[in-house]
Design a protein that fits this description.
The chain is an alpha+beta fold. The chain has three domains: 10-86, Aspartate Aminotransferase, domain 1; 91-175, Winged helix-like DNA-binding domain superfamily/Winged helix DNA-binding domain (Arc Repressor Mutant, subunit A); 185-236, Herpes Virus-1, CATH 3.30.40.10. Helix content is 43%, strand content 15%. Strands 1-3-2 form a three-stranded antiparallel sheet. Strands 4-6-5 form a three-stranded antiparallel sheet. A hairpin with a 6-residue loop joins strand 9 and strand 10. The radius of gyration is 20 Å and the shape is globular.
Length: 237
């Protein structure tokens, strides 16, 4: 016999609504929101049961091909939550919000980021692509505007003119990226989720997120690769 999914309450619905309107929610925010929703709607609140609370919502989202997913920020290793549409790939999901030419710029930017050594693409390289688009050529000024929008909408994030995939984008597109970039997309050797910004072992080629590298090598005088045991030649953060 199947265990019936726990009931959705107004607290669950309120939590889901806020998560959807945020696009992505940092872990400590999600914990506060959990408490707020339970207290507002007079639903029993257990502070250590956020994951159970979310899996109740997920069991009701399943028939709608949606899911709240947890992912880790590649910058600081913090947990984040995003609502993912499982029925659509990233590109169809974005297609309702962007024009054909904007999507092409995004895909090309994503190529650059994923094929790069460190998970970043410079604005110069991205803007050079703008006038080679198949849909139609895009002026640099236009392309700069579009990149700004991708950052505002949390598909890309930018540091000093270098772009990478936003945590939201990684959570939503992990499957898409792993299947479309099979030869180059790496999973982190430590946490086993997709690693865009990563350090790579020069000997055996495995990759690790920077926060995972930091944790793994903490307190080791001589960092060695967890897979091949060769000296880890990257500067550990």
């Amino acid at each position: 016999n199947t265990v019936m999914a726990a009931q959705m309450t107004d607290a669950h619905r309120r939590f889901l609504q806020v998560l959807m309107s945020n696009g992505i929610t940092e872990g400590s925010e999600a914990r506060k929101l959990h408490q707020h929703c339970c207290e507002t709607d007079k639903v029993y609140y257990a502070h250590d049961k956020l994951d159970d609370f979310i899996s109740t919502i997920n069991s009701h989202l399943q028939p709608l091909f949606m899911q709240i997913r947890k992912g880790i920020s590649e910058d600081d290793g913090r947990a984040h939550y995003a609502v993912v549409n499982l029925a659509e790939t990233e590109v169809t999901k974005m297609a309702s919000d962007y024009t054909e030419i904007e999507l092409e710029l995004f895909r090309k930017t994503m190529d650059l980021i994923i094929l790069s050594e460190n998970g970043f693409a410079s604005s110069t390289d991205i803007l050079n692509l703008a006038d080679q688009l198949k849909t139609k050529k895009m002026k640099k000024k236009e392309a700069e505007q579009v990149l700004k929008v991708f950052v505002e909408d949390k598909w890309l994030s930018e540091k000093n003119g270098e772009y990478t995939l936003h945590t939201r984008c990684i959570i939503e597109m992990e499957q898409y990226i792993l299947s479309n970039y099979q030869d180059v997309a790496r999973k982190c050797n430590i946490c086993h989720s997709l690693a865009i910004q990563s350090q790579v072992c020069e000997s055996c080629g495995i990759g690790m997120h920077l926060p995972c590298v930091r944790k793994y090598f903490r307190g080791q005088a001589e960092p060695r690769c967890p897979k091949c045991n060769e000296f880890w030649s990257c500067d550990t953060p």
